[in-house]
Amino acid sequence: MTGAGRPATLSSFKAESTATFVKAADANGGIALNVALPSDASGSYAVTGTDGTTIGTATLTVAAVDAGTGTGLAHTGYEAPLLLIWGAAGALMLGIALVVVLSIVRRQRANA
Q1: Beta strands in 1-112 (DSSP E)
Q2: Under DSSP, is residue 15 helix (H, G, I), strand (E, B) or coil?
Q3: Predicted TM-score of the model (pTM)
């Protein structure tokens, strides 16, 4: 966004609130930015950076934590019952055994 040492103005806003500050870019023109949002923050926040001639934008989206787990992490998967897993494994083993037995019987009939 800017050359090394040149200050860049960054701002973050949601609705009508705006925070503006100046931060220097690194040698590659990149800026590392730590954003601290309120604990009750939700929705999307726009972050805009400019050095006077170049403008860069990003959007931060804040999602609510799954309140049902109490661990602070959202539930993202399916928890299959153990009986279902063992039943599926057993059905697979029976299917494999049936194929093996039928192939042995077919060979015996072909050789008889």
Answers
A1: 7-14, 17-24, 43-50, 55-62
A2: coil
A3: 0.36
